[in-house]
Amino acid sequence: MVATCFVLGALTLGTPPSAEAHLANFGSWEITRGYLQEIFPDATDFLRRRDTYSEAQVRQIEAELGFELYPEDRNPEFYIAVDESGGKRRFLGVAIFIDPRVESRLLEGNVVRIEVGIGVDARGRVKRVRLFDYRGDRALTRGEFLDQLVGLSLDDSFDVGPDKSIKPVANEPVESQLVANAAREALYLMKVSLGQGG
Prior knowledge:
5 helices, single chain, FMN-binding domain-containing protein, alpha+beta
């Protein structure tokens, strides 16, 4: 935990793109653990940490992210990935799941949702982003798009566009920005919850 606080305390703030999202809930630890294993495949265990934001923190987060938190988002759950295979515990990073608020639409009879898992490494940078249960354009779930987010920190721009460093999926420009926003939100929530001076 000391490593987590030290690392995330080094995060700095960047310019906030507008985003609306709330934390995803998969309903069972077995499903959640499987998704976490996709984000941190080297982890042998995940330590759960739930936080409760004060009213001052809620106002700070809402001002930074540009939208109102849902009631359940005031108690985020973080998953600290560790590797104990070498006989001692090694910190790999922290994961969180975010469910961006997409405009309601149906695809093949199902409501389209984006559930984004974000892993942040020991340096406070995006390590891996995965989408779960997404039924839109599969290109949004592939490395060609998602790997553009790897290595970004709060110092970086998360703006998506043809003339930006993060290129959108051609058929899903709005959803592409929502995924990038979710990665930035994850970094910011981790700064407030686990970092110093949050």
